[in-house]
Amino acid sequence: MKILVTGAAGFIGAHVAHRLLSSGRSVIGIDALNDYYDPQLKRDRLAWLHAVGGDFTFHHLDFADDEALESALDGQDIRAIVHLGAQAGVRYSIDHPRAYMRANLAGHLNILELARARQVEHLVYASSSSVYGARPKQPSAVDDRVDHPISLYAATKKADELMSETYAHLYRIPQTGLRFFTVYGPWGRPDMAIWKFTAAILSGRPIELYNHGDMRRDFTYIDDVAQSVIDILARPPSDDGRGKPGGSIAPHAIYNIGNNRPEQLATMVSLIEQACGCTAEKILLPMQPGDVPATFADIDATARDFGYAPTTPIAEGIPAFVQWYRDYKGL
C-alpha angle with apex 48: 44 to 52, nearest 5 degrees? Predict the structure, then answer.
């Protein structure tokens, strides 16, 4: 049985594919290798995957192109899909809205159609903590209403959940949506704060702290995230008419993947400074449009159904990232 991983050259996708390959699974990876950030990092992640060995096939394509997707996968026996490819980034969606319409809406629909045509056993897809918006209630639980997104990125992720619910109802496709909370770690994304702050501090440049530094994030280490995806992939939701996390009675469940421990931005910066061995010059700025002051995951449902229990605090995860960054950059 082959497992399709979209966004296989991306941060979470590469880690999930690496674990699948390391356990002897056959993986087909697809990725557009776009230039949202340096494509060389994506190519380096692919080299990391190829180094595992095993049965790994990669297709360089845009899954928003339905004809290219179907042509590349023609004749392949795909029994499960991990759909992690997307146009990421809250702030980027302000200036590049059409990229989100294409990747996150048309692209998600194409993956749903592929799952329907292949009658896959399970489709696990990436949603986002951004769907919760700026709600004052914390922590955020999957049964909370998420009707007021404050960024286009968040709106597309909520739309993905709705499309998946429709396909689960109409075609009984088992699906699980995962709302990820601030994932970080080795092979991370250069547009995220931990990477940007590490790069700036090591090069002596100032760092920018939005909302004047008054931000909290539920930082979730990549090893905890990747293992949770593997565990959830193995257990598709039942088509039993019972309510699932997120409220569906179709075979469609939604779970939070977070650390259940929001940390002040100042704590994160301090840990990076310690790991880098130098102090950052800080520029305090107002809140960015579409951003939220705090994220905090209620993981009760994930813990109950899968034994999910993240084990990596930022006091361990951030030094691990900084060391990986130094090694990757040859510093």
Answer: 160
Report the amino acid identity of residue 216: R
Q: Which carries the bigger pLDDT value, residue 292 or residue 38?
A: 38
Cβ contact 236:282 at 8 Å: no
- Between the two ends of the chain, the Cα-to-Cα distance in Å is 41
pTM exceeds cut of 0.90: yes
CATH of domain 2-181+221-258+292-311: 3.40.50.720
* Residues recognised as catalytic: 153
Six token digits for residue 58: 């990669």
Please, are residues 125 and 177 in contact by the beta-carbon 8 Å criterion? yes
Please state the three-class secondary structure of 166-212 as a single string. HHHHHHCCCEEEEEECCEECCCCCCCCHHHHHHHHHHCCCCEEEHHH
Tens-place pLDDT, residues 209-240: 877 766 788 899 999 999 999 999 999 999 99
